[in-house]
C-alpha cells in the first residue's frame, strides 16, 4: 500500500491535526556523535523534510551556525518560522526536496535526511521520486559534501539506491 507522502496536502493535514513536536527515528543526543564525525560547527547544513522536529533547533543550540530546514508542508514551515523567528542560524523554507532549484548548486556542506527518503519510498512512484530527491541532494552538495541519511530502510536496499549516485563514497553506521 502506498501513501500520498509526496503530496503537500498530506503533510499539511497531518501538521494541522497534530502540531506537537515530533522527531522521526532518533533525537539529536543520539545523533550528535555521528554528526561530530562528519560536520563542523561552521558548515552550512540543509535538513530536508524537517517537519516540526527539534533537530535543527538542537543543532543550533549545540553551536552549529547555519542550519537551513526545508519541508513540503507550508503549514509546518509557517509554524516553525513563527516558533523560531528569533533564533540566529536557523532558517525554515517551504520547498520540495525533489526540486530545490531555489538553491544554487554546491551550496551546502552537508544534507541531513531523517526519514524523508523513507517517506518517499512509501509513496506513489517511489523510485522516480527517490531518484529525483537524490539527484537534487547531489546537486546542492559541495564537492566533498556529506549526505547523512537516517533510515529504517534495509541497508542493502538503501545502499543500492545511494550507489546510483556514482560520485559518493558511502559509510554505514548503525545507531541503536
Automatic annotation (TrEMBL):
GO MF annotations, alphabetized: methyltransferase activity
InterPro entries: Lys/N-term_MeTrsfase_sf (IPR051419), Methyltranfer_dom (IPR025714), SAM-dependent_MTases_sf (IPR029063)
Ranges of residues in domain Methyltransferase: 45-152
One GO BP: methylation
Keywords attached to this entry: Methyltransferase, Transferase
Record-stated family: Belongs to the methyltransferase superfamily.
Name under which the protein is recorded: Thiopurine S-methyltransferase (TPMT)
Gene source species: Musa troglodytarum
Amino acid at each position: 500500500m502506498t501513501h500520498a507522502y509526496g503530496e503537500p496536502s498530506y503533510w499539511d493535514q497531518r501538521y494541522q491535526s497534530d502540531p506537537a513536536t515530533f522527531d522521526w527515528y532518533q533525537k539529536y543526543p543520539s545523533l550528535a556523535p555521528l554528526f561530530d564525525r562528519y560536520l563542523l560547527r561552521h558548515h552550512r547544513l540543509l535538513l530536508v523534510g524537517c517537519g516540526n522536529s527539534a533537530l535543527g533547533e538542537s543543532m543550533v543550540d549545540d553551536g552549529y551556525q547555519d542550519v537551513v530546514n526545508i519541508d513540503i508542508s507550508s503549514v509546518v514551515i509557517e509554524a516553525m518560522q513563527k516558533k523560531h523567528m528569533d533564533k540566529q542560524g536557523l532558517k525554515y523554507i517551504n520547498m520540495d526536496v525533489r526540486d530545490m532549484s531555489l538553491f544554487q548548486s554546491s551550496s551546502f556542506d552537508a544534507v541531513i535526511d531523517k526519514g524523508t527518503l523513507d517517506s518517499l519510498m512509501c509513496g506513489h512512484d517511489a523510485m522516480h521520486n527517490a531518484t529525483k530527491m537524490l539527484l537534487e541532494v547531489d546537486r546542492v552538495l559541495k564537492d566533498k559534501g556529506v549526505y547523512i541519511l537516517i533510515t529504517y530502510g534495509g541497508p542493502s536496499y538503501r545502499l543500492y539506491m545511494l550507489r546510483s549516485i556514482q560520485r559518493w563514497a558511502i559509510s554505514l553506521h548503525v545507531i541503536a
